[in-house]
Amino acid sequence: MCPPGRGSFAARPRRSSGASPQNQAFRDGNKRTAVVLLRAFLNLNGYDFALPEDLYDLAMGVADSSLTVDGIETRLRPHSYAV
Predict the structure, then answer these.
(1) For 15-82, which CATH superfamily applies?
(2) For residues 31 and 40, what is the distance between their CA atoms, to the nearest angstrom?
(3) Helix or strand run (H / E) with residue 48
């Protein structure tokens, strides 16, 4: 669980996953790297997610800025679970 006042488990990684592919850290693979970092962050905090069909759309929406921070959380929340 997240400490009080720190936001939900889905709210915190949405901020970092939204920034990673837009910062262009690599010549290629920014969206894949953002998805891996998102999953690693959730795993370290005791959660995982299952978005088999929607994962591509999520990564593309973040990369082209068509998904807002709230939109990322909205997509993650129903598919996230405690491990």
Answers:
(1) Fic/DOC protein, Fido domain (1.20.120.1870)
(2) 14
(3) strand 47-49
Q: Largest Cα–Cα distance in the chain?
A: 38
DSSP 8-state code for residue 27: S
User: For the whole model, what pTM was predicted?
Assistant: 0.61
* pLDDT tens digits along 9-68: 556 655 555 555 555 565 667 788 888 888 899 899 999 988 767 788 888 888 888 888
Both structure tokens of 45: 């905090």
Taking the domains of the chain in order of start, what are their residue ranges? 15-82
HSE value, Cβ hemisphere, 13 Å, CA-based, for 67: 25
Helix axis angle for 55-63 and 30-44, nearest 10°, is: 110
